């Protein structure tokens, strides 16, 4: 039934409806302000219970119903009808809102006016945008196959001759300028790290590690002696059978190194965690830990593993202790003096602290030898493990480490001479037909064994032991070897 209501002024009115109250046996009900949208019984608010069974209410919108008095309505609300309301994904596009200024209490971060130019797109041929990094007044855009720089609050004006000049503009995102080189970040933005003006990331498409910044633009830092390693390792991260792996990067603020952890999705393949040092322009160390995240904070370096955060370089815990697991440090290198001459490497020595042992020492292979079954027909010289100074101790009464030794103490491995640790290299390989057997004397009698390793070069791995100052500080400065020239095999 229609009704006519007389009003004095051209005021607006609020129309409210009474709904049933299930807790009041349908007597009375809840007064629902329709403009609020949702009844309190299902999460609404600003309602009041009424006792009379009325259905509709009309309320004056101005206080005391006076002309031009303060209005109690909800202000202007815009209603827009989209022709295509379905969502769409634009992986190569950028969109920005209104401004935010805390000093003037302006917050337009929820304003996206379709009447203004608020979008910017990059070349879709280079794949989706994976990462944005703001640097001063520039925005670096990392796509799958390209890295570009977008100007912020300024634009570039080009002349007819092709020259350009940067000028102020009211544009939020100005001209997008690509960096030279067809490099991108793939779908692994987690490899990104930044320190100073250097940015590091991995390009899985080309299996390389990149550095952006300084005067060099984009540089392949994986080429510094590690090209083959990264080519094979990065290419195995993503697997059609096991899915997408991880390439996690971060900056170690304590050691000033870029840390990269390559973690293939295939559980049969090993993970690799290694570091790049700008001071030596090369990859300096492999580590045994497998981080979930890498970050630095307040001059400290942290990683996460599972649900736990670990602080590295802590002087209150043992060395070589990562995520509760203790291991050893090792260094692999090559003795290769006088590269074109055949040599016999007779001793090995190092400068540093006690507690280092040689776990592997092998000469180069001879090439294929007919009727030589070991190693598929290839022969090379090898030596047994060389014990550390403490571990190789024994006395004249048959006592060996870790038993209590009675002086004089002998050393089966490294001995200390003139502040160096020195050991003989004892050849433990089997002689083959035609091989020249050298003297069996190198300071001590080597029963049934020839002395030294024969070859053009020798591969050596030296490692910390498990007995000397376990968990303590150990260092090594230099390693050398005495050798003589050989007449060959």
Fold and architecture overview:
- This protein folds into four domains: 13-65, no CATH class; 91-181, no CATH class; 183-327, no CATH class; 330-485, no CATH class.
- Helix content is 2%, strand content 40%.
- It is built from one helix and 37 strands.
- It starts with 12 loop residues before the first strand and ends with a strand.
Straight-line distance between termini: 117 Å
Gross geometry: elongated
Largest sheet: 5 strands, antiparallel
By secondary-structure content and strand pairing, the structural class works out as mainly beta
Helix content: under 10%
Number of domains: 4
- Low-pLDDT regions: 438-449
Number of strands: 37
The whole-number mean of residue pLDDT values reads 82
Q: What is the radius of gyration?
A: 37 Å
Percent range for β-strand residues: 35-45%
So how many helices?
Answer: 1
Short précis:
The protein has one helix and 37 strands. By secondary structure, the chain is mainly beta.
Task: Give the topology, please.
Layout: E1 13-19, E2 29-33, E3 48-50, E4 56-60, E5 93-95, E6 100-101, E7 106-107, E8 119-121, E9 129-135, E10 138-143, E11 147-158, E12 164-178, E13 193-195, E14 198-203, E15 208-212, E16 218-220, H1 227-234, E17 246-252, E18 257-263, E19 272-277, E20 282-287, E21 293-297, E22 300-305, E23 308-311, E24 321-322, E25 325-326, E26 330-335, E27 343-352, E28 356-363, E29 393-395, E30 409-411, E31 415-417, E32 420-424, E33 441-442, E34 444-445, E35 453-455, E36 458-464, E37 476-485
Antiparallel strand pairs: 1-2, 1-4, 2-3, 5-8, 6-7, 9-10, 10-11, 11-12, 13-14, 14-15, 15-16, 17-18, 18-19, 19-20, 21-22, 22-23, 24-25, 26-36, 27-32, 27-35, 27-37, 28-36, 29-30, 31-32, 33-34
